[in-house]
Amino acid sequence: MNDIRTTKEQVVQFFFWILIGVMVLFAVLNTTGRQSGSPGSGNGAPVAEGQDLASQIAVYESILANNPDSIKALIGLGDLYFDGRRYQEAIEIFERAAQIDPTSAHVANDLGLLYLNTKVYDKALGNFQRALKIDPTHLDSLFYIGLIHEFAGRPDQALAVFNRILAANPSPELNRRVQQKIAAMKGQAP
Length: 190
What we know:
Layout: H1 2-31, H2 53-66, H3 71-83, H4 87-100, H5 105-117, H6 121-134, H7 139-151, H8 155-167, H9 172-185
Helix pairs in contact: 2-3, 3-4, 4-5, 5-6, 5-7, 6-7, 7-8, 8-9
Protein name: Tetratricopeptide repeat protein
TPR repeats: 71-104, 105-138, 139-172
Keywords: Membrane, Repeat, TPR repeat, Transmembrane, Transmembrane helix
């Protein structure tokens, strides 16, 4: 009887240590090898996630001091300013990026968002339209065009834009946002 109990205890201890090992492994994997930048920006930001905003900005500024036309560094710095709600600084950086690479839908869309956040709707609309001209599948830009129509009191145009997005088979997240906007505009619960 004693031998069976000892074997059971050993098995329980074995599984306990395996569980602890797996938890440590997941903790290590979740804290290493990740880079910052705006969610989904994919800009390959060379800064660690735990750094404060000022340190991250300093990294990009040093890159730009050596290579002032680095589109990746401009986008990274602009995204940091955007995330920090430093909209005027972000606008200046993205305007500079747009001069260097006028074919970037990312830059045009982010400029549109910045102008939308600062309530400069004509410039926002122009940048979203430019992003769509560069990349006709950039449905986020189309969504923001719909929002501008809604804000400007043109609900019919906004609904037409939102329906155009739905017809283009958007991502599940964008589909949900569009459905909510349409329901809200029609006075229905989303």
